[in-house]
Amino acid sequence: MWLTQLLERNRQCFPDRVALVDEHRSVTWAQFHDRTAELAGALADLGIERGDRVAVLSLDRIEVLESYFALARLGALFVPLNHSLTAPEVTGIIERVGAVAVLGESELLDRHTSLPDHVRLRVALDKPVFTALGTVTGPVPQPEVADTDPVAVLHTSATTGQAKGVTVDPASFRAIGLGWLAVARPTDDIIMVNCAPLYHGSMVVSLTYMAAGATIVLMPGFTPQRALAAVEQHRATHLWLVPQMLRFMLQAKASHSTDLSSLREILYGAAPMPLDVYADAVTRLGCGFRQVYGMTEVGGPFVTLGPEEHPAPGEVTVRIPCGRVIPGMSARAVGAGGGELPRGEIGEIVVRGPGVMQGYWNDPGATEEVLLNGWVRTGDLGFVDEGGRIHLVDRTKDLIIRAGQNVYPSEIERVLMTHPAVRDAAVVGIPDEDYGEIPLAYVVAEEATDARTLLAHLAGTLAPYKRPRRVEFIEQVPRNPAGKIIKKQLRGRV
């Protein structure tokens, strides 16, 4: 099984190399391997069996990955939970997956005292009871787990509705990992600071670099100061984040006094890279950039644009392409009937290959809805250029149709962000009696400005049918932990 084989190889090849680091401790590959084997045996003694679902509720720390790998050894499914969810949301996920146990940090567990009756085990990861698990009896024989056995239920980011549970098997992790490694070709001396949470598909990036023998530095939540300090302290070569995080890091006062010279590559994804942030980062950091385009339903990262393909800041005026699909996976732009579109023509991006999910947990209706002729629908509108690179334009659900003409909110947002007074922006469609739907712009202003000024700025670049009728100023654009705009919250303000 892929996750177990990953640990066995790295114990054999790099036993004394540091595998994981968090704010409390570090472990070598040999220690990580042995601990997960011990922990698997202890969890089996506590009644966790093959096929059981176990929820994990924690900030990023070494014990989270120990739990994932130990449960995978048993053939049990780990179910990572977003630690920012409310009690009803956590309970709802635990009920839907039928979790029999919850592993988590004590402070978070204390917030969720009322759990369904089928939860028969609660263990705090940050207490001595967890540390003691398996240290008395030691490793025990574990079952053979096939690559097609489900190993995890990863939940979507839920920017448009209730999070869906994506059922993933080891074959998915392996396909994405090997395809990514074939393109990125990471060296085994990599030290990666991971700014992304370990509770959804973005964690596959960390698993992939772990397969190459890299050291992963974990943080209990992102702050610019914490990320900067981690890069300097550990002499990190790689940094994995979303573009908004990079903006905050560059804006932090500490960025000018922090030694970031060890950085070789910044991996970014989940949202488009603002061109001003990219230009600033290229000038100040002098390292390479790698774009990550992924989706939980297709196994995580399936498209990448490497450092050698990134344009110089002055050479890109619209957007940076996502890149090419990794070996083993296939992606294309299709029209309404599912047929592949010619190069350069905008359609929905669809994906297939061994990395795709088994389906949504106990939801065949939703699974059928996301499939199109055997391909997984991403919900992203984009096109494939003559070089085979995928370019994203917008989300299908965010598309505004004004009097029969397509208006892409991301295009308006991008132009708004070029105004010096705009710190952040989001555009949604609102009903209109005359045109059916029109764009409304929400803006976070960095300095004094007014709606008339910004509308005039848009008029210099956008055709009349694309321009918002009005601009509303807000304190903050709502985003999820992955940096994606939660547009349902903005539509609710209308």
TrEMBL record:
Organism: Streptomyces polygonati
Xref: InterPro entries: AMP-bd_C (IPR025110), AMP-bd_C_sf (IPR045851), AMP-dep_synth/lig_dom (IPR000873), ANL_N_sf (IPR042099), ATP-dep_AMP-bd_enzyme (IPR050237)
Domain AMP-binding enzyme C-terminal: start-end pairs: 411-484
Name of the protein described by the UniProt record: Class I adenylate-forming enzyme family protein
Domain AMP-dependent synthetase/ligase positions: 8-361
